[in-house]
Write a structure and sequence with these properties.
Elements (H helix, E strand, L loop, with lengths): L2 H17 L6 H11 L9 H14 L6 H10 L11 H16 L3 H12 L11 H10 L7
Helix pairs in contact: 1-3, 1-4, 3-7, 4-6, 4-7, 5-6
Length: about 140
């Protein structure tokens, strides 16, 4: 991952936690980035995460709860096993546990988990931040080859 991408992710991480009035747990970001660097990942990598945050920067003003949406992006592919069918649910549980341990309000922890579950792409996402998160996640499909 380039230095610019790492700086974008670090800045986005700190901003997301600040928007939830909670100090950013630095070790949680290191853990997430280690997960996104797992050798079995071909697409769900830190590059994908950085690209998501580049898109998010362009549409941040559309988010109702930008801190929650950003944390949803950070955790949406935290657990990735190409043979499993519950990666999103496990990623949501990981996010919920991390946010609760950091002292985030339960309502925000649940909102982040709900956003992550929208990335199962099993149904049309709810209007608002879930739609925005899914659009960001899938933006690569509209990118030039």
């Amino acid at each position: 991952m380039s230095g610019g991408a790492h700086a974008l992710l670090l800045d986005s991480w700190c901003a997301a936690w600040a928007q939830l009035d909670c100090p950013a747990p630095a070790l949680a970001l290191a853990d997430l980035l280690a997960r996104y660097a797992e050798p079995h990942r071909a697409y769900h990598t830190a590059q994908h995460l950085a690209e998501c945050f580049q898109h998010f920067a362009e549409v941040r003003d559309l988010a109702r709860q930008p801190g929650e949406l950003a944390l949803g992006l950070f955790f949406h592919d935290a657990i990735w096993d190409p043979h499993a069918h519950d990666c999103e649910a496990r990623s949501a549980a990981l996010a919920r546990a991390c946010l609760c341990a950091a002292g985030v309000a339960p309502s925000s922890s649940e909102a982040v988990a709900t956003l992550i579950l929208a990335t199962r792409h099993a149904a049309e996402p709810a209007p608002g931040d879930a739609t925005l998160l899914v659009d960001i996640d899938l933006a690569i499909l509209g990118a030039a080859p």
